[in-house]
Recover the amino acids of this structure.
């Protein structure tokens, strides 16, 4: 299983929507790191990660998202997560990342 | 009665997925429910990451994964002969101020019922984790 990443800039809402499909682990996480750096360099706006198609994440994948969170925060922008599967939501919850990455509304 | 399985895995990121599949299959056979199988899979993968990223240098050698199936529990040992580290220097992550690294051991300890980490600088690391059925 590989990782597939599709980034689209939504002009209406003025933010990036990044769909992450597959498995994000020690082998594939760097692909997301490079993509998030690339799109933010292209346009410094908020980023939404749509995890509907993500089946697995480990600490290296979470680390990539934390790294992006820090880089965006420096520029007063936000990264957030939508549609995590139950197994991924569990990891976000135990690491406390749900509080900073998932919008309550 | 204990059934014992042992795998020797190249210390390269591309083989962690193989371990995840194998351990999921063993946990399923042991009778765990889906959520517990997921916990075991994630915890073992984190221990493999630990061996690859912090234990073995230059992806040069294999590490070993041993699984003990007992009536009421599954014990998994992940052992590398890498550089090892001083466990006294381990600091649990500050969840209010997340950093890119350091979540792996925390995740293992949260998902498994018992975790023991034996590591000595220059001798390698063994992470032993237990989940009760």
């Amino acid at each position: 299983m590989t990782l597939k990443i599709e980034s689209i800039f939504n002009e209406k809402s003025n933010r990036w929507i990044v769909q992450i499909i597959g498995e994000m682990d020690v082998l594939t996480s760097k692909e997301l790191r490079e993509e998030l750096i690339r799109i933010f360099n292209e346009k410094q706006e908020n980023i939404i990660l749509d995890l509907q198609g993500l089946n697995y994440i480990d600490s290296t994948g979470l680390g990539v998202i934390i790294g992006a969170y820090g880089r965006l925060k420096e520029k007063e922008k936000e990264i957030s997560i939508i549609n995590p599967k139950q197994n991924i939501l569990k990891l976000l919850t135990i690491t406390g990342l749900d509080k900073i990455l998932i919008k309550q509304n | 009665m204990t059934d014992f399985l042992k795998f020797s895995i190249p210390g390269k990121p591309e083989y962690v997925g193989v371990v995840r599949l194998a351990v999921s299959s063993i946990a399923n056979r042991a009778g765990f429910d889906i959520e517990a199988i997921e916990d075991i899979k994630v915890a073992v993968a984190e221990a493999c990451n630990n061996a690859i990223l912090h234990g073995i240098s230059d992806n040069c050698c294999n590490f070993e994964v041993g699984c003990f199936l007992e009536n009421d529990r599954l014990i998994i040992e992940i052992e590398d002969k890498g550089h090892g580290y001083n466990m006294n220097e381990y600091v649990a992550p500050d969840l209010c101020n997340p950093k890119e690294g350091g979540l792996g051991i925390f995740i293992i300890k949260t998902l498994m019922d018992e975790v023991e980490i034996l590591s000595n600088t220059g001798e390698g690391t063994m992470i032993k984790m237990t989940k009760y059925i």
Summary: The domain at 3-101 of chain A is CATH 3.30.750.24 (Transcription Regulator spoIIAA). Residues 6 and 19 of chain A are 5 Å apart (CA to CA).
